[in-house]
Automatic annotation (TrEMBL):
This enzyme catalyzes only one turnover and therefore is not strictly catalytic. According to one definition, an enzyme is a biocatalyst that acts repeatedly and over many reaction cycles. Residues 71-148 form the Methylated-DNA-[protein]-cysteine S-methyltransferase DNA binding domain. This is Methylated-DNA--protein-cysteine methyltransferase. SUPFAM superfamilies: Methylated DNA-protein cysteine methyltransferase domain (SSF53155), Methylated DNA-protein cysteine methyltransferase, C-terminal domain (SSF46767). PANTHER family: METHYLATED-DNA--PROTEIN-CYSTEINE METHYLTRANSFERASE. InterPro entries: MethylDNA_cys_MeTrfase_AS (IPR001497), MethylDNA_cys_MeTrfase_DNA-bd (IPR014048), MethylDNA_cys_MeTrfase_DNAb (IPR036217), MethylG_MeTrfase_N (IPR008332), MGMT (IPR023546), MGMT_N_sf (IPR036631), WH-like_DNA-bd_sf (IPR036388). Belongs to the MGMT family. Residues 3-66 form the Methylguanine DNA methyltransferase ribonuclease-like domain. Gene3D superfamilies: Methylated DNA-protein cysteine methyltransferase domain (3.30.160.70), Winged helix-like DNA-binding domain superfamily/Winged helix DNA-binding domain (1.10.10.10).
Length: 154
């Protein structure tokens, strides 16, 4: 499975591709690039992520293939529909999908492509909720600040 690394404001990210789609984004401590040159898709993904971190991209345009069951897929699609700079609650997404908030939270935690599939834009009704990416809530807050979507944290 082709992969590449990208240095970001949130640490070193590893992007994975399979079948012509991005399948995973994870944090790593690895500092060296894999010996294979990145594929055109991974090169484009790095370019889009760099533009996002620089505040110049508000919507990713990449083929994605996140693994997960039907509910997870529905939650992933709902997250992708949340515009840059906006948030939703677990409950709002649950009502939209006709399910409970807890499975929505579980799907957010199972998101294999964080940042690109913006699980950081989902909040609890009483506050931040959780974040499964490296750095936990600190990273979630930083992503929300980057997007200007959590004004009282700015």
């Amino acid at each position: 499975m082709p992969e590449t690394l990208i240095s970001s404001p949130f640490g070193i990210l590893r992007l994975h591709e399979a079948g012509g789609a991005i399948t995973a984004l994870s944090w790593t401590n690895q500092l060296r690039q894999t010996p294979e040159p990145p594929t055109p898709l991974l090169t484009e993904a790095v370019s889009q992520l760099s533009a996002y971190f620089a505040g110049k991209l508000t919507r990713f345009d990449l083929p994605l293939d996140p693994k997960g069951g039907d509910l997870n897929q529905a939650v992933f699609r709902a997250m992708l529909d949340i515009p840059f700079g906006e948030t939703r609650t677990y409950g709002e997404i649950a009502r939209q999908l006709g399910t409970a908030a807890q499975p929505v939270g579980q799907a957010c935690g199972a998101n294999p492509i964080p940042i690109i599939i913006p699980c950081h834009r989902i909040l609890s009704a009483q506050g931040l909720g959780g974040y499964s990416g490296s750095g936990g809530l600190e990273t979630k807050i930083a992503l929300l600040k980057l997007e200007g979507s959590f004004p009282f944290l700015l």
